[in-house]
Amino acid sequence: MKTATKSTTTAKSTATKSSTSGTSRKVKAKPSAAEGLRELFIDSLKDIYWAEKALTKALPKMAKNSTSENLIATINDHLIVTEEQVTRLEKVFEILGEKAAAKKCDAMEGLIKEGEGIMEETQAGAVRDAGIIAASQKIEHYEIATYGTLAAFAETLGEQEAVELLKATLEEEKQADTLLTDTAYNSINFDAADDEEEEL
Question: Which residue of 6, 120, 147, 198 has the fewest CB atoms within a 10 Å radius of its CB?
């Protein structure tokens, strides 16, 4: 019995090594990879700079495809805030002595595409509105995580002026997330549920 147990353990160990050997590997850094926190900070700023500029184009499309007046107003208000955030990021670059430059943000590109997919897969009305809110909140949560991290980086680097600007944007993103939640719970999600019941 002991021999059988040992054989089984060995087999499991071999299987585990086999299953992970093809996926677990060290990632080779690019020649341009960041070596210090400051470089990573600036690289991350370029990433979110691209993301915010992309949102200034995506938000009007979301508003146009919404039907709730409250949701449309919330999106349009946040578009104005987003444009101000782009300008704020340019100030951060200036503080750091860097030229404002955008680097394609794969995460934001994916979130925007997901939002477009939701609009294509839902009929105009409460159901699409609920989908737009869901997509928008995913974007807000990504931005909240990003600005929180950037503010922490700036704090560590002693860039206090940049910290204040980044924290201001962080608070705006949190407020936007709260407004979207309020919009959803006030009526849209309930209207979407009613539409589904009527179809049944």
Answer: 198
